[in-house]
């Protein structure tokens, strides 16, 4: 009862805060004439139509390319420092990739990089949906604006926007010949170069080319090999063309390419309880390695669950144990010696055609093709022993086509959009996991054979051969996927009154997920007796919005929206099974009330929203016997609040404050959970666990001041502070993976001469040099280990830009 009272109190306070400004705002706007706003009003496309962010009855944050540069943000993963209730990690757990997004908005997202795991927050590049998390962390090169729409967007954006959507819009070419170059030099030997040139070909055909290179030394070290970790070495190019074919037809073509050959993310082995590392009850570090030194205590066991471990021969006395000696005690230092590196090549093209067929009707076509090839590796055991090394060689292709039909009628009272969406994607992941390979390397070096008859294999004792029965290797392309997605949607916006609008939307989607595990082998044999499987998932999501405009500077709204994230198949297994195991879709329905207001003569803005969401069939990643897998673990409830404030108290001084509050909790646990070995397991989630990547409170504040110097030059000074409550970096709330409350400070200063074509700026990121983790994984059942990825320390440098 007490808990319910507290929850009600939070909601009441949140609602009160949102609507408390109403009389103030109304009174502030009673004058007939309004001064021009000193706060930038960004035009957004969050409802598939261009409108002011202040006229959009959704919780949306938007930033221009200039705004990103003012904050010295290098790629889109850093926007979580300025968007409430959002986390964005560029390295997903267990990946070893430097470009594998893990994004959460309002407590909903995804933490797995696997091809079979769909994002919970959709990322779009010029309207093209990016299907996989790998390859979706874009450089901020030549960006016109970024929009972050919070809450489920199941109607217009479709599947896998259950938490929200990130829409990246790049700068389009125009009729003016111009160009620019930007160079950055900083600590860690940072060298970055960007450039663009805008070339009109004719009076109705314009082109633009942008290029970028970015090199940066690592900030972590492998003690035994001297290798560094966290270094960057990437390149990107983008070409766009805009053709006004007729007065009513516009074509936008874009093609982009990016490539990287860089170091693995900075990772380290950590354990609050050192004795857990390689503990006797762990599957691969204990039963398959440490416990075998001098004799196998399981020899002769008749327990079928331990049959594979019972047949293993002893290891020679003196074999080095896997234990706490490999804990470095420093997040930036590791005793790993195994595979490392992160490489990718990403290519994409899109063609957008917009045809105004009549005064009231427009058709828009968005055709997109994207592909990537990537290789990445990690030494997860953090030691010179080969107990857990992972290597992934992944390829992916996607083709998408969307048709949008826009119109209006009834003398402007009705706006409508309808559309069709199709996507086809294929991909493969050739994965190698060296479970307990050290054991079998020692067998080979000492000519030790083993008797596999206990698990249906041959007796190889006399042959002196003992193959690694746990090792995962690819055959051919490895695991492959073949997916198709189709959808039909419609949304209408009708003016019930001159100040009252009603929006109704509906979308029906069907996803076909196919998997082929023929190329995924365990111990050199098939992992799945029936490796080719297919399953279809269907969903219908709706939305309604009731918005009321009290005056031209005050909008209020009430909405209910639904979303879903598709189900799929688990790609990882520890023992051969008859069929691949599947997980079901997750769904959410969310109520939201909000206000958008400008007042104080255009010097102040307050946008706020309160929301309450029911979250069903929650997909989480957990470990079972050393194998990560996705399960539908629970139902949940998420209540929250967001407030975004901008104030210009005096000319040249701007202050922004953005606050987010989340009360996310599990309300019902699913007891029927199937483990990695095909058997029911105890649901590892507890009702009082924190949602992964979901801080209860988040706050960002920025102050920018422009000084007009005596020579008419401009000096712009900016300070940004970002605070987040503690964050759980895995679903089971492993203590070592809970990042305590954190405050980051970024500083920038820029100088622009009067009417000059050049400028210079200085920046400091993480000015207080905080050491913190961004993601990680705890495999205590398999190895007793906890591995973390650590963020970059303090960085500083100078940026010089020149335009012509």
Key features of this structure:
804 residues, mainly beta, 22-stranded antiparallel β-barrel, 47 strands, globular
What is the overall pLDDT average? 93
Unreliable sequence segments: 1-34
Q: What is the percentage of strand-forming residues? A: over 45%
Q: In whole angstroms, how far apart are the ends?
A: 67 Å
What's the overall geometry? globular
Q: Please tally the β strands and state the result.
A: 47
> How can the largest sheet be summarized?
22 strands, antiparallel, barrel
Helix coverage percent:
under 10%
What structural category characterises the helix and strand content?
mainly beta
Number of helices: 6
Rg over CA atoms? 28 Å
What is the strand and helix layout of this fold?
Elements: H1 2-20, H2 22-28, E1 43-44, E2 51-52, E3 60-64, H3 65-70, E4 86-89, E5 102-105, E6 108-109, E7 121-125, E8 128-130, E9 143-150, E10 164-170, E11 178-186, E12 190-202, E13 205-216, E14 220-222, E15 228-229, E16 232-244, E17 249-262, E18 267-270, H4 283-287, H5 307-310, E19 333-334, E20 342-356, E21 361-379, E22 389-409, E23 414-433, H6 437-445, E24 472-474, E25 479-497, E26 500-516, E27 520-522, E28 525-526, E29 532-551, E30 554-565, E31 568-569, E32 582-583, E33 586-599, E34 604-624, E35 627-647, E36 653-669, E37 673-674, E38 680-681, E39 697-708, E40 714-724, E41 727-728, E42 738-739, E43 742-752, E44 758-765, E45 773-779, E46 785-790, E47 795-803
Parallel strand pairs: 7-10, 14-19
Antiparallel strand pairs: 1-2, 3-9, 4-5, 5-6, 7-8, 9-10, 11-12, 11-47, 12-13, 13-16, 14-15, 16-17, 17-20, 18-46, 20-21, 21-22, 22-23, 23-25, 24-27, 25-26, 26-29, 27-28, 29-30, 30-33, 31-32, 33-34, 34-35, 35-36, 36-39, 37-38, 39-40, 40-43, 41-42, 43-44, 44-47, 45-46
